[in-house]
Here is the input.
Amino acid sequence: MIKPTIVVVGNGMVGYKFCEKLVNKSSDFRIIVFGEEPRHAYDRVHLSEYFNGKTAEDLSLSSRSWYEEHDILLHLGDPVQEINRSAKTVHSLMGVTYSYDFLVLATGSSAFVPDIPGVEKEGVFVYRTIEDLELIKAYASNVKTGAVMGGGLLGLEAAKALMDLGIEETHVIEFAPRLMPRQIDSAGSTMLQSKLKELGLSLHLNKSTSHVGGENKIEALHFNDESVLSVDMLVISAGIRPRDELARLSGLQIGTRGGIVVNEKMQTSDEAIFAIGECALYEGMIYGLVAPGYEMADIVAAQITGISKLFYGYDMSTKLKLIGVDVASFGDAFVTEPDCRTIVFEDTHKGIYKRINISIDGKYLLGGILIGDADAYNILLQTVNNKLILPPNPEDLILGTRGGAENEGAGVMSLPDDALICSCEAVNKATICSSVIDLGITNIDGIKKCTKAGTGCGGCIPLVKDLIAGTMKANGQYIKNVICEHFDYSRQELFDLVKINKLKNYDLVLDHFGKGDGCEVCKPVVASIMSSLWNDVIVKQDTIQDSNDRFLANIQKGGTYSVVPRIPGGEITPDKLIVLGQVAKRYNLYTKITGGQRIDLFGAHVNDLPAIWEELIDAGFESGHAYGKALRTVKSCVGSTWCRFGLHDSVSFAIEIEERYKGVRAPHKIKGGVSGCVRECAEAQAKDFGIIATEKGWNLYVCGNGGSKPQHGQLLATDIDKETLVKYLDRFLMFYIKTAEPLSRTATWLNKMDGGLSYLKNVVVNDSLGLAGQLEEEMQALVNTYHCEWKEVVDNPDLRKRFTHFVNAPEEKDPTVKFDPMRDQVKAKW
Amino acid sequence: METTTAIEWILACHTNDVPENGGACVKLGEEQIAIYNFTRRGEWYATQNLCPHKQQMVLSRGMIGSTGAHCEPKVACPFHKNTFSLISGQCLTNEEYSIKTYAVKIADGKIFIGI
Ligand code: SRM
Ligand SMILES: Cc1cc2nc3c(=O)[nH]c(=O)nc-3n(C[C@H](O)[C@H](O)[C@H](O)COP(=O)(O)OP(=O)(O)OC[C@H]3O[C@@H](n4cnc5c(N)ncnc54)[C@H](O)[C@@H]3O)c2cc1C
Ligand code: SF4
Ligand code: FES
Here is the structure.
């Protein structure tokens, strides 16, 4: 039997997806693909990652061998030039001719370049293909200012890319009075603008460009309002134009503003010819996103193999990636009252704007906009698409349930089975849940492999994770917080096992309680447990330590390390300051005052670390444990010794506390603060423990946190004296060390604790578990066994030897490490 | 033209230069190669030292371990914890990356790398 021939024109994302769908459905066809670009289909959606180190190979959607395996004939770098519809043949530029039974046009679109005088000048680019990006990258290496024309989805992505390329000044020029006019409303846009300005973008709205100035290459943009902006390069991102030239030439019906007209079967005006992806015009609309293109590909593959499936339009909800500000719009984002009820939440301080549109009867979510915090995007989109009935207080959707118990995961489980979870790969809820139940897959990688969900834009991954957890729970599977595949225990269980069995070596722990050979998750957990129990010198088992602990320094861009000596309470003598300056100078280290009231010296070669520390130790410094999950700093304010408001001597107390707990290792780092009065200049309430002087003594706050989800500390005890306070602190810290999950700060630990603060208070203050004495003793044992681990290394030739880059050339430094000058110091060359 | 080249073994360093259950970096000509002493399994591995994720010369400083039912030996990059099979070089956390692996031979306490 002669197989019918399908010719595909275009090997972009959608053309490729069509081939994949067709070969998955049937092998009864001969497939021939023409691609104009020199390489086989790649992931255009993640094109910008090309600037972040991904190679063309990384972005590739498949390999050449994939086409061979499926007998697909691939003609790359060879565009189809002509279609002879009566003879049913195609002719390519290189002179190849094929006849077809079905022809699929997947020619995509090209960047729209407005007809502005001067756009042909050198230094003006578009942003569509890998070749475009190569040109931009090469040109950007010696320019200072860049501009992007177009403040839409793609324009902002391009602007971020220019910033990432190291262009000092990046401008966005938008013709409309606001950014992303197609996705978000003007209030949202205002919020987005201020966030983008914070990121360092200069925005110019309401600007129409009259011409591009410069001799041969671009030097400036001239606007209709007579203003001028000098720029060294320009990326045009003013919209897309469907590539319909081939279809037009062969007499297929074309929309008035471009695009190949298709019906719900994706057929063009010629029954044997289909058009899919960004070149296809369905009901007056070009779908400029990949998910609808994939859906179209599926429909044509179905048509050809005799399955009836039709296209009914597609949801255009989007979430902006990359730019560093969450932006999302979904469903009908723009309906206004009286056609709906709108709920808006705005926090100009945090830069958050959320809007949801609800049906008049209050039952359904119609659409909305999220700026600054789009965590809820997936579930809101699902609520719209599946017409889920809204809860009685729909504002909870954007504000979270306040007060009452949170029912995490309940949202996803209430979705109907056919709810589309991954729209890029068209995977629904039932498919994911059945992979969990029937195939026993319980992690995201497994789901990716077996369903492809989450392999496209990746936006659905949080939702998939919730579904896995929800399904397991519903299925009665006990979700235990085990450490990793090598240990079937929680951290707390393992802590007790190691303690009772007095195990002091990782391999022994693995032999007794684990399986396999361990990994990067369990090794540092066990290392931390052993430190909290036995307080041995950690570098003696250096290869189980987390990256920074192995070299007792924080690794940085380029592979150098930083040096942070302890400066208890932030107090330092002039002599010690001088030594820091001398050492920094000798080893050419970038010097900065940290946010923790001490001094960080950056950019040390691993080979230099022991010598640097030797000098520092000689001058009386000790390790600051900036690399460890250990006590970092106890921040102080100047207090009663100098401050006219100070009630007690906060500096002395901070030093005392820092000296007490220095070197103590924990599930995560620990920070403290001591303020001399309620003015709280030491920001003690933002720390894991915070101490504030009162008229009668000290108040103790616990479980505060900075970081990405800041949280204030909570009051554990009031008006207590120093001795009591230290006792409470001993108990509190030791209780945390013994019971918290790996890498969980005190705030997260408390948030997850049954009973919350009142339980913690009972344990620490009222000794409800009868553990207080033991906790104090255990802490005292750690305090008694303190050692400066850098001193141990400096004094031990064997340990010193480990600080080399090349073991076969110990004197040589890593030649790939490079620095650039910056304000009389250096920075990592990157 | 088809040529079959025999593996060329280059002396890299001594077995006691590489810490137990960990890695170290050697310089062979202009290349940086990471050698891993998988003491627990009595095995040796070698890969490129460059992590392809953000082009960092650091894999030798990563933690080694194993994964899966067949205990595939792997190394985790210290920067962002992408992990790589020590046998195939395939990145196990991100299909798109892979690293070069080299044959290792031990003789008389010396480590040789096959190029
Ligand atoms: C140097 C410093 C920034 C500065 O220039 O000021 C800094 C630098 C780093 N911080 Fe920080 N943090 C510094 C103060 C802070 C502060 C402010 C403070 O301590 O008062 C915070 C918020 C307070 C808090 O921790 O609650 C802070 C919250 C973080 C976080 C988020 C923690 C969280 O609970 O979410 C991380 C990430 C982590 O630990 O997982 C982090 C991680 C890091 C790392 C270790 C990132 C890394 O893994 O490489 C940086 C190491 C740089 C290096 O190579 O030395 N850094 N970091 C500050 C050092 C303070 C010190 O003297 O030790
Ligand atoms: C920087 C960037 C970021 C993006 N981000 C997102 C995103 O986050 N989410 C999203 O959903 N979408 C995004 N998109 C859009 C998405 O990439 C497109 O929707 C998708 O690539 C469309 O696929 P396509 O196959 O229709 O077109 P294309 O991928 O453009 O492929 C068409 C191919 O056909 C070739 N061709 C044209 N004419 C001929 C001919 N005559 N003969 C042979 N070959 C021909 C072209 O050279 C091209 O290779 C982004 C696009 C860009 C540029
Ligand atoms: S906030 Fe902390 S972790 Fe982030 S860049 Fe600054 S120093 Fe590094
Ligand atoms: S540089 Fe290795 S994981 Fe990122």
